[in-house]
Specification:
Low-confidence stretches: 1-42, 93-98, 505-516
Structural class: alpha/beta
CATH superfamily of the largest domain: Aldolase class I
Radius of gyration: 23 Å
Number of domains: 2
Distance between the termini: 38 Å
Largest sheet: 8 strands, mixed
Oligomer: single chain
CATH class of the largest domain: Alpha Beta
Length: about 525
Amino acid sequence: MLSLLKSDTAPRLKPLGGIKVELAGSSGCGTTGGAGKSGCGSSAGPADMPPEIWEKVKNHPCYSEEAHHHFARMHVAVAPACNIQCNYCNRKYDCSNESRPGVVSQKLTPDQAVKKVLAVASTIPQMTVLGIAGPGDALASPHKTFETFRQLQEKAPDIKLCLSTNGLMLPDYVDEICKYNIDHVTITINMIDPDIGAQIYPWIFYQHKRIHGREAAQILTERQMLGLEMLTARGVLTKVNSVLIPGINDQHLIEVNRAVKARGAFLHNIMPLISEAEHGTVFGLTGQRAPSAQELKEVQDACMGGANLMRHCRQCRADAVGLLGEDRSDEFTLEKVEQMEVVYDLDKRRAYQAGVEAQRAAQVAAKQAAQAAQQADDGIKVLVAVATKGKGRVNEHFGHAHEFQIYEVSANRTAFVGHRRVDHYCQGGWGEDDVLPSIVTAINDCHAVLVAKIGACPRDELKEAGIDPVEKYAHEFIEQAALSWFAEYRERVANGEIVHQTRGDASIRQGAYLAA
């Protein structure tokens, strides 16, 4: 039997009293209710946080923006049940053509999941993180979830264990989470106001009964806040996911950000609603629109100064494998895993990861050198799109890119601010002219796009749209390339060769989403 931590023995939740939350004593970065150094956001380094926190996040692609260029993760779909209904969710099984949470191609038993993890970790030695994120809720199927973690703790002790939950049952399982050294937990928290929650959640199933409407939302938010407090008090790094739903919780997420920071959340990940009708969700079928890139960035920027923000989320499938932004799950179906000879060589994995860390250190050094070479800040700030397939470099052909990573660049700083999904321009070796306008629209707030290579036709289209296509820095580190291009751009402005024009957020069109 699983040991349960009864909620009546835990610290009591501070009353919400509406959506205004003003609690002191937490910076959102520590392991004891956020008591660590301030400023340890997703792009932070070892100088920004206590050593024990750095050890937990340095090679975690979800908790470190820098690490996501180098390290991989995987999810195993062992938890099919769910105890709440969300208007933005429609779980699908045996589905390989959608990339969003709640979708899987195969459900697994704990034994199957462990075998798959060992196979992936042996093939992809930079895979450092194993998460259980559904396809339902990890704590609605607790026996399957914790049996998987139990086995992995024994057989793959170097892999970080993660759990994602809606938080309804979280207070009952904090002891179990700590027992298996699950250092990273994600809670989806979309509201702290039950009136708003009633518009998102039709019902919850709690204490053997289905509860609807505002009452359901009230119970859910109280359980979520209590679980978050209990985790941070026990030293578990906690990330909060929030789905941005225009007209429902868009402005309210600022209050959510304050509330989760006050309770010690390490990161806050504000994600765009996925609402295409073909997914069959309530919001999709009723016409609830997704946020634009401008709206998402505005809400994220409004939360700056609160809980630290994660901006590199890809809203992964519940069976995703590989680097963030890629999915190699087709390589590791049950049938293929059964035929693999798996040798879990811990020393080999550590040696490989040491090489990855060396690449990462080189990336940081290149960024620092480029920053040191910059002149005084003159107030110019632009967005730059980057085509990359990993390792922190400009290493993707324009026509092969399925997303562009977006960086905000000024005289001595680069900051990752999001990504834009696009359709491949090159299909079977030929450029698709019908696709090109949508790609240009997706990055039309950027001054430049850095690529490994680009053809004549898209080059001309980008220039016509005022976007500088740049091959000069192919295969260089992203931050170094962006700062080098920006230095040249400023020089051209200073010499009168070009006139700096603010493209800015206002030029992001309604159809260009920071989708994941």
